[in-house]
Amino acid sequence: MVVDVGVRSAALPHPPRRLPVLGDVVGAHASRPVQDSMALAARLGPIFERVVLGRRYVLVSGADLAGELCDESRFVKHVSPAIEGLRSVGGDGLFTAYSHEPNWQKAHDLLRPAFAQSAMRGYHDIMLAVASELAAHWRSQTSVDVSSDMTKLTLDTIGRTGFSYGFDSFSRSKPHPFVDAMVGVLSHNQRREIVPIPWLANLVFKKADRRNLANQRYLEQVLDDIVRTRRDERSDPGAHADLLEIMLDAARDSGNPNALSEVNIRQQILTFLIAGHETTSGALSFALYYLANNPHVLDAARAEVDEVWGGEAPSFEQVPKLRYVRRVLDETLRLWPTAPAFAREAREDTVIGGVHEMKKGDWAFVLIPGLHRDPVWGENPEVFDPDRFVSAEVRSRPGHVYKPWGTGERACIGRQFAIHEAVLVLGTLLQQFDFHADPAYRLKVEERLTLMPKDFRLTVSIRK
User: Fold this and answer.
1) Which residues of 11-48 are buried (b: 16+ CB within 10 A; e: fewer)?
2) Whole-angstrom Cα distance, residue 99 to residue 410?
3) First to last CA, the chain
4) In a 10 Å sphere around its CB, with 0-12 CB exposed, 13-18 middle and 19+ buried, how is residue 197 labelled?
5) Of 355, 367, 422, 452, which has fewest CB within 10 angstroms of its CB?
6) Taking the C-alpha atoms of 375, 377, 383 and 388 in order, what is their torsion angle to the nearest 10 degrees?
7) How big is the chain by its Cα radius of gyration, in Å?
8) How many CA atoms lie within 13 A of 114 on its CB side?
9) Coil, helix or strand for 405?
10) Pick from 155, 149, 157: which is nearest to 173 by CA?
């Protein structure tokens, strides 16, 4: 029997009707573990456990306990089982590396300047060009599949800015095959995690494992094509100033302590292609859902765009001036953080909450949507209210109660990139289009390690 030890309290709350051997499976949905856990957090409190086939998961959503787990002096990132499954394609890339592996620190130090202010300025025109392609596509439509279009947009944006590689997303009638392969790999790993007994998982997922292997091989082909394309263009080594060029330049410099191997460069490319577009596309899709369903917020956001940008394409400096639009994005990520959990591991024996013992190596999940609904957010945390993020409100709350980007030294390296892209795209769509949601639509959330609205469409028309 598999047992992953988390918090060692003998009597943590758990779902009712626990079954021998199977554990807490009554009422559980394999396709929506995050939403199940959110409902359990609302019933069971700030810390609880779930046991599935002998594997124990401890989930924390209370602000005080999460604050302790975010203390870098006591806790470090833990690679959870679902993320560990992605190591088959991500290896020791930034997202999937164990904290003791050196390549994540090398890559972090090597690539951090690529997300500095000066570098971000260089990405702006590419982001603007891809946003313009999205707008051109919307002009030819009356109804749009929001999540599909946001995925096309963010995949091309990270492909072009990071690797000077276009996926030609808006010239295709269907998403690029990379998207289907990526979603397949992410969803497979989430489902497979539910069965922690290796021989049983191999039996249950025998057919799915073959599909997953085919998806992994396709992703590897895309990575090979990206690197091959760059090497074919090396006659002009100054033609590119992107993530790939930084990594290749370091690899050629035998004296660079942060040089990465050929294999790891490919793993970092895949990390950025997945993390750099999947989470942002979800954030944009949720934001458009909330804008379309809150007319007063939509009107305020559009008025700000009209005042700051007018009818022109924005400069780099004009994007962060959309402060209300930024608050819309922040509030969206409060309600639906698209990377919905992170795991923290005790560096040494410790106690959280004054009573919950954790030995060195024990770990627990921080359930971010639960944390973002803690009572510290007020009496109606389910209500969408961008004014929660006016400066005075932000200063009145502890910093650890808002964690959509993860925490500590392993938090999202591309946070500023994602924020600039998302605000620019929302501003562009507000500037150029009227859009409305079907009043009968009720938000459905698809889980594939990340979160995304499902079957969400908008009726769109060009602003007069």
Assistant:
1) ebebbeeeeeeebbbeebeeebbbbbbbebbeebebbb
2) 9
3) 64
4) middle
5) 355
6) 170
7) 22
8) 20
9) coil
10) 149
Amino acid (one-letter) located at 368: I
Partnered with residue 450 across adjacent β-strands are: 448
**Per-residue model confidence as pLDDT tens digits over 104-120:** 999 999 999 999 888 89
Task: Classify residue 346 as exposed, middle or buried by CB count within 10 Å of its CB (0-12, 13-18, 19+).
Answer: buried
- Percentage of the chain exceeding pLDDT 70: 97
Does pTM surpass 0.85? yes
Query: Over 60: is that where the pLDDT of 361 sits?
Result: yes
Cα–Cα dist 7/95, whole Å: 24
Tokens (6 digits) for 195 = 């069965």
Q: Whose CA is closest to 59, among 338, 341, 264, 305? A: 341
Residue 298: partners with Cβ closer than 8 Å, 6 or more residues away: 291, 292, 430
Phi/psi of residue 366, nearest 5 degrees: -95, 115
DSSP designation for 438? -
CA distance 14 to 30: 17
Section 277-284 average pLDDT: 95
Element housing 88 (H / E) = helix 87-90
What confidence score (pLDDT) does residue 256 get? 92
Asked if residues 250 and 260 have their Cβ atoms less than 8 Å apart, the reply is yes
363-367 and 55-60 beta bridge pairing: parallel
Could you give the 3-state DSSP secondary structure of residue 334? helix
DSSP 8-state code for residue 400: G
Lookup: tokens for 99: 């904290």
How does residue 237 score in pLDDT terms, banded at 50, 70 and 90? low
Confidence (pLDDT) at 314: 98
Q: Is 100 exposed, middle or buried (0-12, 13-18, 19+ CB in 10 A)?
A: exposed
Which residues have a Cβ under 8 Å from the Cβ of 311 and sit 6 or more positions away?
Answer: 431
Backbone angles phi and psi of 447, in degrees to 5: -115, 125
The Cα 375–Cα 206 span in angstroms is 44
Spatial CB neighbours of 440, under 8 Å, sequence gap ≥ 6: none
15 by DSSP, 3-state: which?
coil
